[in-house]
Amino acid sequence: MTCHNCNTLCKKCGKNRKGTQRFQCRQCRKTFSESNNQLGGMYTPLDKAAQVLNLLLEGCSINSTARLSNIHHTTILSLLSVAGEKCEKLMVNRVRNVPVSDVQCDEIWGYVGKKEQNKWMDEVHRKDLGDAYTFVAIERHSKLVLAFHLGRRDQASTTAFVGKLRNATADRRFQITTDGFQAYPTAIDYALIDRCDYAQLVKVYAAARDGEARYSPADVVGAVPTPVMGNPDKNRICTSHVERQNLTMRMQLRRLTRLTNAFSKKWANLKAALALYFAWYNFCRIHKSLRMTPAMAAGIADHIWSIPELLGAA
Ligand SMILES: [Zn+2]
To answer: From ligand 1's centre to the CA of 41, what distance in Å?
Structure first.
């Protein structure tokens, strides 16, 4: 512990009423509490913070977490944004140059504040309100989430997402499968043409039925594998694994559950919740079919991480 003013080493000086170590500078006589580095200077004890984040990751809303943990909802949102920022850095720093063989990409719909069609006239141009798509890329065998991006369902977001995917993967030939969204070929041609064989799996939907269609997506009646670039192997054109991961995401994050009145009110909080979720999914959560974490399967971690470790590593 060094003094903020004089940069000299401080000596221990008792404890405050919460039991946190205090320090005093021998030069200017100022006293300080030990700051919580893992939480960016927040005074919430680390085990309590880990409990709160665990509740958020098990599908609790902000308000139910506040009731269960006896922590004010504003504190919970601050914790979420601190953890989200750290986890985003962690994903960029640790998931990089990973050798992969099969990559699957998909987008998950969600919204911030209100759905796109309910915007008022003066809100039409606001980018932080309305539909919010999460782009996800997953490795088929290790189940590692290589990259994610929160944005609109447009070319700019797709290009940013594929750029992140390029940084995450090693320079080795692999196969990539996406859905039929027309922004992917341009983005992949731009960023990944030197290292991948690319195919789209275009879904064919049945005609919407009256009444029922409003509560569930239309039935898929067929999927057409369509090679786009290079020489993709027909038998490996598949997006099932990334779609299963989307279900896990909707189960774990309260703000993405469908047909409820739970939703994100702020773009930044949704982004933080996603970053926290993906870091937790990669490093902390035991995948049932792998019997270890995806990061261990991919060889970028050697044990199951705890949430304090996750916060400390970034
Ligand atoms: Zn001092």
So the answer is: 19
The CA distance from 42 to 35, in Å, is: 7
* pTM of the entire predicted model: 0.87
Query: Does 214 score more than 90 pLDDT?
Result: no
**What Å distances lie between residue 113 and 80, 213, 264, 270, CA to CA?**
18, 24, 6, 11
Q: Which run of H or of E encompasses 238?
A: none
Å from CA of 28 to ligand 1 middle: 4
Higher-pLDDT residue of 102 and 21 is 102
46 alpha carbon – ligand 1 mean position (Å): 27
Question: Average pLDDT for residues 214-224, to the nearest whole number?
Answer: 79
Report CA(203)–ligand 1 centroid distance (Å): 66
How sure is the predictor about 211, in pLDDT bands with cuts at 50, 70 and 90? Answer: low
Question: How far, in Å, is the centroid of ligand 1 from the Cα of 22?
Answer: 14
Q: What is the average per-residue pLDDT within 229-243?
A: 91
Distance 40 CA to ligand 1 centre (A): 21
Architecture of domain 84-313: 2-Layer Sandwich (3.30)
- Spans of all domains in the chain: 1-34, 84-313
Q: Which residues surround ligand 1, an ion (CB under 5 A)?
A: 3, 5-6, 25, 27-28
pLDDT digits (tens, 9 = 90+) for 30-49: 888 876 667 877 878 888 99
The contacts of residue 193 (CB under 8 Å, 6+ apart) are: 229
Contact 267, 133 (CB under 8 A): no
